[in-house]
Amino acid sequence: MGLRVARDVMELLRAEADxxxxxxxxxxxxxxxxxxxxxxxxxxxxxxxxxxxQTHFEIDPQALVNAHRAARAGGPQVLGYYHSxxxxxxxxxxxxxxxxxxxxxxxxxxxxxxxxxxxxxFWRDDESGFTALPYAIDDG
Length: 140
Hints:
Blueprint: E1 2-6, H1 7-20, E2 26-33, E3 37-46, H2 61-72, E4 77-84, H3 94-99, E5 105-111, E6 119-126, E7 129-132, E8 135-138
Parallel strand pairs: 1-3, 1-8, 4-5
Antiparallel strand pairs: 2-3, 2-4, 5-6, 6-7
């Protein structure tokens, strides 16, 4: 089945990266986990509270708490996270690899581009590290 990503999520990720420019944007990926596949139906932007946001990201802990509470109350599941690499490729960096929880979550990484041409890649963070995830755009 694989990973499906709503078109408006892709547009939001690119817009957030564009808006953030020289700092890493970040947020939470929401949707449905279906065993063999997942659907990312929404992305929730969050403040990057890391003291060096130009090269690192840390999602505002309260945003994470709120997203998990909403999921427990019947809202969409927290499937993973996104962040941008303002000066690099859309692949996990050495910092990403060192700080990852290896918990099976999905990571989206957005790299620079011209406007809507930002590159977006998706990764599964598990015990063995990051694995690239092929995905399909879902038009609804």
